[in-house]
Amino acid sequence: MSASRYTYLGPAGTFTEAALRTLPEAATRELEPMVSVPAALDAVRGGEAAAALVPIENSVEGGVTTTLDELAAGEPLMIYREVLLPIAFALLVRPGTTLADVKTVTGHPVAQPQVRKWLAAHLPHAAWESAASNADGARLVQEGRYDGAFAGEFAAATYGLEPLVTDIHDAQNAATRFVLVGRPARPAAPTGADKTSLVLWLRADHPGALLELLQEYAVRGVNMMRIESRPTGEGIGRYCFSVDCEGHITDRRVGEVLMGLKRVCRGVRFLGSYPRADKVAATVRPDMTDAAFTDAADWLNRCQDGRP
Amino acid sequence: MSASRYTYLGPAGTFTEAALRTLPEAATRELEPMVSVPAALDAVRGGEAAAALVPIENSVEGGVTTTLDELAAGEPLMIYREVLLPIAFALLVRPGTTLADVKTVTGHPVAQPQVRKWLAAHLPHAAWESAASNADGARLVQEGRYDGAFAGEFAAATYGLEPLVTDIHDAQNAATRFVLVGRPARPAAPTGADKTSLVLWLRADHPGALLELLQEYAVRGVNMMRIESRPTGEGIGRYCFSVDCEGHITDRRVGEVLMGLKRVCRGVRFLGSYPRADKVAATVRPDMTDAAFTDAADWLNRCQDGRP
Amino acid sequence: MSASRYTYLGPAGTFTEAALRTLPEAATRELEPMVSVPAALDAVRGGEAAAALVPIENSVEGGVTTTLDELAAGEPLMIYREVLLPIAFALLVRPGTTLADVKTVTGHPVAQPQVRKWLAAHLPHAAWESAASNADGARLVQEGRYDGAFAGEFAAATYGLEPLVTDIHDAQNAATRFVLVGRPARPAAPTGADKTSLVLWLRADHPGALLELLQEYAVRGVNMMRIESRPTGEGIGRYCFSVDCEGHITDRRVGEVLMGLKRVCRGVRFLGSYPRADKVAATVRPDMTDAAFTDAADWLNRCQDGRP
Amino acid sequence: MSASRYTYLGPAGTFTEAALRTLPEAATRELEPMVSVPAALDAVRGGEAAAALVPIENSVEGGVTTTLDELAAGEPLMIYREVLLPIAFALLVRPGTTLADVKTVTGHPVAQPQVRKWLAAHLPHAAWESAASNADGARLVQEGRYDGAFAGEFAAATYGLEPLVTDIHDAQNAATRFVLVGRPARPAAPTGADKTSLVLWLRADHPGALLELLQEYAVRGVNMMRIESRPTGEGIGRYCFSVDCEGHITDRRVGEVLMGLKRVCRGVRFLGSYPRADKVAATVRPDMTDAAFTDAADWLNRCQDGRP
């Protein structure tokens, strides 16, 4: 039964699975790794899964373009949760291996830039070869093909390996952001620390359109958190924008921003309002609270009735 | 009975009376000249008159500060109509007087800068002395104290004078704008060529507050037509703003501007939505029509319901 | 000899003379009262006076439109100093008069709204009649025509009167701002607490032109202190703007604002950079100091030379 | 000798080489394929090559993040030329192969989404496997491992293959943009159809910083053409921006934008001004021409000298 199944970007034993397992409801779901982000999301679109967890952004590599493009096109989907997972690799080895024994290492290509400095400092002579995934790298170490694999510490047990060194990460604060994606439904209630995601297509004939878009946010005191341009596929110079802002669609100020964008943009896709993983409450200007909006609406009604 | 009485800035025989008589309903009202703008408006506030016609702006002299300040303070009033009257003076003389006979002329002080060039060209040697009003000047000519008075042509009959020269005005397009002011009531229905007037007090602690105020208009595509600063009385450097914009309070884009201003300003006074005297229809951007606002609100509702 | 003569808005014994006498150099100048602001300024334009002191703004009455319009049109003039004079009236009476004796009072029409509340509280039955100036009112009391005159305390001696009550002013912080105007010359050196005045004519065909104008200031972090619209004389709906901002024309950020305005406006008239009367130093954002401008210009040169 | 050598993203026979060969000077240079974008650029940094041609943007896939990140970090480099290459694949086969014979196809992973629809329509049963590059795919067809390779038509001769079908591309107007990168030097002279590239780091403590950044462009009428956010590596939520705009650094309006950005941003890296590949001349507002800037500067000088 689909409601009990969550897909995720596989294979098993990668950071995506670790991120998924941080969600309480994951304990009661059947978790199924998929070969790609599109495959994980198509299972949701097709009703075979209730939701999919996929990476959307990495503080070292940037936006996960496949995820951004899948959410922007095709059958609409919505984001219901986000997970922030600090990036920290373990060097997994077969039991008994010491650092001096490690001549060859492997891992997913995106892992390499994140452990490069560590490698240069601690294993300057080790040869790197890429694996299809971090989990696959661990398997290849298990099979004896390499001496060490960079992967999540959690993958050690699965492959009978030991974490020789843990908490390896070249960049401070490195993290990956994942989103739990489902079919469109009513967003969860606001928590006071929420985020709202959109895809926006500007009108092509309008040079200042991006500035106009940002002013829709600014004039209602809504803080933009991320903006990422993506090609629309119509040719060089044609972009849409993936945008996250503070607040929830049921916040009056956010609702008015969304309506403003709906009017001035060529297209808007609502991707959901959901709790911020960092739980930081929005800072709302006193003149932009729901109460301020309600007062203003009441006043407008009184003016229209001749009782200003 | 008050509903049948309109007051206006007197005395009789001035441009204000002429402006009032351009309103069809003036024919069925008792028209009563008052000694000052505050007196004319206080009669409305006190219920002795249904409405008052007062000048608010002159294309040569600028804003009529007494009117602006009276509308900004005290018991609230609202504007229901505006009248634009071209400024054109007649030189009124006693019957039989020729231009060569005119050695002394009079008129209200504000008339002088508007006929100065004409005087220099046609009566370079005539001496000017100011009168309390244009009508009063005509009376003084009737009494023989001056040879000519600059006043509206319509004043000639009242004082037994003749218009020796008509259509005198130094500036092209010179006009005075008058407003018909009543107690607060439901504004007249929109005509498609409307104007909305406000008084706005900025938050004192906010350097960019005026820019913010203009952006409330700009982001909804509402064209500002007039902005005039007035002192708040709290000291040099403290101002409020009298602002007219295109559109009617029941236009969605105007309503949203008003609510925005209500939130970000320290104070807003709604002075009315009323037909433009020049009957120029507002140019509304396609993304700012009522239909565009309604579509956006429908879409927001669908998003909130999970049907984006 | 003209360099030794300063004109001012007369007659003698008014607040303008008192303001002029606060300037140290006034002690060594011949001070000549003139019948009007245009007369005072024309004496400067014609070379008969080195400078003229005229009121430009009052915290109760607003801008002095004659001064604003005279500075905007005709032969160019420049402001070199400003003076802020607190508004405080004295009730001047003939020696021996007591408050109970005062049945009639006089003063300039603009004085009336500034003493109205005091009158209502202390002399509720006294009749007010207007005089041509506060000084003229004092003279009429001297002649016995009225019992009391509202004027500056400094006027008492001139007319053989006594100040019965002093420091009368309905509004707190009420003040009048005067400017010392001369023929164009190099502005005085910046003091760190300066003000720059302009007159700006917007391009007629541009609805968002006022917003664009304010953004020229905002983008360089220059704080606008006063904006006043005045009719251009071309008809209702056509305005120019009298604008004061913080800073001196030789401040880099102010210079760039001025050049920006020169480009985007239909017309700009520079009215001077001069020390602020309140001596409040400008708050300059760290990225808008002269040093920040110089650094940026140096960097641009290096980029153009291929040494970024 | 390095001045005669250009590196490019290899291997030989790919679109990057084809793009490089569209540059006239390529005919007289030694062209050396490199295994990666960093390798191609490091050869320039190290002085072993005069310039490197690398892809920076693809109208289907988006920005080439390796190139964007390499240009933003490390030893400064500058862009001197851009090349736009329409994306059109040929299906390369061994001589004699017909469409009916093609059961297996290969190509670079980024080629797949660009030929997916064509495959579905014309070879619905063909199996796709990815190759390391399009050129490598062609080699594998030559070796008999696959029946067809998607690659540039120009690669056919190198591998003894024939183009069975040409001009295959799912998206209209699909193109890749390449840049020719060298060590910093004086930019080429402006052509009237130029582009300027920057990397911008916002101040972290400033919510409206992106809006402020766009206003630096808007207030000088400089049209932004591309903006792409990239992580700074300091953690989720910390971005820098890769931005292209119309115009040349020696255009006055562009120079002032650059200086403005230098002041308000935490960091700015100038990546060059170079001719636009599409040769579209910039549309310059009349108030933003070099002449308008020069006039404004002259006027400012006159004002500072007291000759406004």
Automatic annotation (TrEMBL), chains A, B, C, D:
Annotated ACT domain residues: 198-276
The keyword Lyase is assigned to this record: yes
One MF annotation (Gene Ontology) recorded for this entry: prephenate dehydratase activity
Catalytic activity: prephenate + H(+) = 3-phenylpyruvate + CO2 + H2O
Start and end residues of each Prephenate dehydratase domain: 5-183
Pathway annotation from the record: Amino-acid biosynthesis; L-phenylalanine biosynthesis; phenylpyruvate from prephenate: step 1/1
Keyword list, A-Z: Amino-acid biosynthesis, Aromatic amino acid biosynthesis, Lyase, Phenylalanine biosynthesis
Enzyme class (EC, first level): lyase
SUPFAM superfamilies for the chain: ACT-like, Periplasmic binding protein-like II
EC number from the UniProt entry: 4.2.1.51
This protein's name: Prephenate dehydratase
Organism listed in the record: Streptomyces ramulosus
Gene name of this polypeptide: pheA
